[in-house]
Amino acid sequence: MDNIELLINLIYALVAALFIIGLKLLSHPDTAKKGNFLSSIGMLLAILVTLLHKDILSYEWIIIGILLGGAYGAYKAKSVEMTQMPEMVSLFNGFGGLASLCVGWAAISGMNNFVLGSTGSFVFLSVFISILIGGVTFSGSVIAWGKLSGTLATKAYIFKGLRSLSIAHLVGFILVGALFVAEPDNGLWLTLAILLALSFGVLATISIGGADMPVVIALLNSYSGLAATAAGLAVGNTILIVTGLLVGASGLILTNIMCKAMNRSLTNVLLSGFAQPRASTEKIEGEISTMDPKDAFYILEAAQSVLIVPGYGMAVAQAQHVVRELQVHLEKNNCTVNYAIHPVAGRMPGHMNVLLAEADVPYELLYEMDAVNPNMENYDVVIVIGANDVVNPAAKEIKDSPIYGMPVIEVYRAKTVFVLKRSANAGFAGVDNPLFFKDNTQMLLGDAKSTISALVREFGDE
Amino acid sequence: MDIIYLTFIIILAGFLGFELIRKVPATLHTPLMSGSNAISGITLIGALGASGGDQNILTTVLGTLAVALASINVIGGYMVTDRMLSMFKKKKDK
């Protein structure tokens, strides 16, 4: 190792430390911003010191690449609406995957016959894996992005033979992998590997329904890290290996949290598209009572404590700002207002928290499901805004419901429940909701934003 | 690279990742995802050699494409995470 290379590796160790401290500081809202900053300094150092490497002879293409990518990234970061974060994160996951695929491919396309002959099969295996994971991440993320942005239909797309097609892909991976490692200079195996990876990514994501999207995004996030690790193995770079694993682990943990919150295993989420959904035999009987905002206002005016449960519908209606206005009015009226966030509310982990933060709701008012459930009886009014499955008592009461066993926010135990909803139809998962038929439930039908605005006006008129 | 040494790195980094992330509260899960998105842009480091190595055209094209894509992740990811984290506020003192 010459001096420059020694310096590069020393800096890499420092960079790894900065990433680790950065992630550690992310564990509290007060320090998170500093953590993100430290991590970005680490990235900058890593890039600058790598440019000193003797293998890097010219800079024009690097600069063009960074400028083009950086400009687009900066534009997206500035212009994205907070409600669109899930789309943006999945799109970025996809870019990360494609970048790793390219790095893996470039690792062998840059080799001449002599180098190819003297390189061990471990490197070729790493190249193959980075192409595989990178490709799956890319095409999977593009499909996820399409579903989240509404470009593609959000429901699970299932067809006959999906399962056998997936198994054929898995067998194909092993076969093509073996052939590629044996003959890395044969373009056919390389092409096949890329095509297989891309089509598997599409196949695996297209069969997953919209309500399971938080799991898919977290999993693809993990893959984008693992793809970087594989690319690091392919080009023999430690910082890529270490950093990729940090991201990979982070994605896996989030995936696990999401799965637990739905009481399903990861296999169940990934493969549920392959099984036929069971038809519910029990029909829910009862009457739905509706209420208009004026009457709802009288109840809210008398309430001492209110719990707000937001869901994806709040994001769709962009209602977070009027929700905050309602909170201010209620607080002026000497009423305590809390928020309860289900782990899978919205379309990505933490989605609701960001939207409420955007509307200036202090994060201390936000509670997790397990914190509010024991005190549910103490709330005079619960306002459910565009959430359905996460407050569905069927998860506790109806044994053959598809969501039976999923932990839910038990709003039906509060004194009064307001459900703000467009119509009384089944939710995203297509499951009927007995909550709507409970005696203490009042439906406020219509667009969530205009309903809450109406409530805010009632308070203002006083 | 020595395969034993690599195995050590992989095991230790994996465990470290799990320990670090487990402590992140649910409130910060979205910034965590966009932040780790930015960090996964570390692929950029691997792409630099291919883009600036004066090798054949295919390698330069692949490398530059990877540099551009990873730059989107790095710059976009850090900026949007910062933007989000600026929104998280404590209750104002009364």
Please give a structural write-up.
The complex is a heterodimer of chains A (462) and B (94). Chain A is of the alpha/beta class and 462 residues long. Chain A has helices at 3-25, 32-50, 60-79, 85-109, 113-118, 121-149, 162-182, 187-206, 213-235, 238-261, 266-271, 293-302, 312-317, 320-332, 351-358, 369-372, 394-397, 448-460; strands spanning 305-310, 336-341, 366-368, 381-385, 416-421, 441-445. In chain A, helix 4 packs antiparallel against helix 6. Chain B is mainly α and 94 residues long. Helix content of chain B is 74%, strand content 0%. Chain B is built from four helices and no strands. In chain B, helix 2 (29-40) packs antiparallel against helix 4 and helix 3 (43-51) packs antiparallel against helix 4. The radius of gyration of chain B is 18 Å and the shape is flat. Chain B starts with a helix and ends in a 9-residue tail after the last helix. The mean pLDDT of chain B is 89. Chains A and B meet through helix 1, helix 2, helix 3, helix 4 and helix 9 of A and helix 1, helix 2, helix 3 and helix 4 of B.
Structural class of chain B: mainly alpha
Separate helix tally of chain A: 18
Task: Give the helices and strands of chain B as they follow along the chain.
Answer: HHHH
Task: List how many beta strands of chain B DSSP finds.
Answer: 0
Structural class of chain A: alpha/beta
Total number of distinct structural domains of chain A: 2
Shape, per Cα inertia axes of chain B: flat
What percent strand of chain B?
under 5%
The stretches of 5 or more residues of chain B where confidence is low (pLDDT under 50) are none
The largest sheet of chain B is: none
Task: Map the helices and strands.
The complex is a heterodimer of chains A (462) and B (94).
Chain A: H1 3-25, H2 32-50, H3 60-79, H4 85-109, H5 113-118, H6 121-149, H7 162-182, H8 187-206, H9 213-235, H10 238-261, H11 266-271, H12 293-302, E1 305-310, H13 312-317, H14 320-332, E2 336-341, H15 351-358, E3 366-368, H16 369-372, E4 381-385, H17 394-397, E5 416-421, E6 441-445, H18 448-460
Parallel strand pairs in A: 1-2, 1-4, 2-3, 4-5, 5-6
Helix pairs in contact in A: 1-2, 1-10, 4-6, 4-9, 6-7, 6-8, 6-9, 7-8, 9-10, 12-18, 14-18
Chain B: H1 3-22, H2 29-40, H3 43-51, H4 57-85
